[in-house]
Amino acid sequence: MEIELPTKNALVVARKDFRDAMRSRLIIALGVLFVVGESLAGIVEVEIIGKVLFGSAPAAPELTRSIASHAVLFIAFVTILVAYRSIAGERASGSIKFLLSTPNTRMDVLVGKVLGRWSVIALPLTVGYTVGTAVGWIWIGETALSAYLIGLFGITVFALTYVCIVVALSASMRSTTRIVAAAMALFVVFHFAWEYIPASAYITIEFLLKGDEASASSLISTTWPAWTVVFDALSPARALDMTLNLMTDEPLSPPLPLFMNFFISLFGGLIGSPEVEDVWYATNWLGPISLILWSGLSLIAGYLRFDAADL
């Protein structure tokens, strides 16, 4: 099946979506939530996590990274709420036939909905992240412009990725209940279950290959193969974490679940610390590449289902 390219009419659809959100004051509500949430994140990071737990305020790049990472779950959840009815809602109301009247194509509608819903989230997110970062910088008396720009790129592209995924689901299904169920299932997998998948796959393969020669401590403390971090980057949540690592030049770390990291923090001096195989593609740049691929492939998959659908 041939995939058509969007035309300038996609921008018309996007503008209509954006104006509808402005009339419903959705952007204002999201802006207030993001500003308050990110500002509080900056203050908590400095006063509680930094000064109380570690005895000093974090440096500006670390503070900026933390403020960006605090928004991850909120971005994903809000995106589901904003985008799940983007096309399914138009089908239910019958207005999809008006949207698809000449000269709009199905690709125009799909891309327009993605751009419209993304702008609804990206604008207040940018304002909230900027204000929150400024509050944190004022609090510690330092700035980190490059870290801020990387963080802004990361969270807005992450929002775009989720918008593409949810709009693709909305284009693929008629039932909004099924769309929400599928989106929430992906949310749970990406944000809560994924940290166990690459590590479990690696340890299982090692035990199958080495048998009795493999031990849990040797697996944890050894050099992990590069494929484990490539696998890890398949989750948009982990891909964003890798992208945010670029803010502070943190080295790429093995995809260890939380309990393994806790184990290493206690016994790292005895068993050593794990590292990632040193190959050219095993870098934190896997993060932004994965987010961009997720966005593009989701859009293509959504279009193929939407184009074949009988409206």
From TrEMBL:
The entry's keywords: Membrane, Transmembrane, Transmembrane helix
GO MF assignments: ABC-type transporter activity
GO cellular component: plasma membrane
Keyword Membrane belongs to the record: yes
Source domain of life: Archaea
Transmembrane segments: 26-46, 66-87, 115-140, 146-169, 176-194, 255-273, 285-306
Annotated protein name in UniProt: ABC transporter permease
Organism: Halococcoides cellulosivorans
Species lineage: Archaea, Methanobacteriati, Methanobacteriota, Stenosarchaea group, Halobacteria
